[in-house]
Amino acid sequence: MFSLQRPPQSSGSTCSNKCTPNILPCRVHHDGPVNSVDRFWIPVPDVKDKALQTAHFRGRKLRGRHVAVPEGYQGVVAAPTERVIPSKPAENDDSAPEEPIKILEQQSTFEEVVVWGHETMPASDDPFVKGVEEWIKLAEAMHIQPSSEKQPST
């Protein structure tokens, strides 16, 4: 299990960082900072629709679509840490030990992502575009409190 937490205040980092994640249709085998991003990544907004973009990555043309995080939700970029939340002592020794809760540290937040496709714009049935809406609906269904009153059937 995981617990999402803000970074400790003593670390000097703040969570006021905002970003726009880009979901690329390729695998990049690098997960650190890049010194000259502007030299390699220059998305150009579409003249007719500012929610669409065009960029080139390693010689391939990419088309991007902005997908907003639904109102009332916030996207979070998190990084794993070595810290864990101590588990509560078990009442009886017969039960299996609880899995430790690992802490994910919030790095930044976002209100939209850009989903990219090769040569063409990602369609509305693209797994990442669809996933934002479907995961939110699933989360809402899982956390809804059942009503004590019976709803009339139609």
UniProtKB/TrEMBL annotation:
- Pfam family of the protein (one): RNase_H2_suC
Q: Which GO terms describe its cellular component?
A: ribonuclease H2 complex
BP GO annotations = RNA catabolic process
Its recorded name reads: Ribonuclease H2 subunit C
Species whose genome carries this gene: Aspergillus terreus
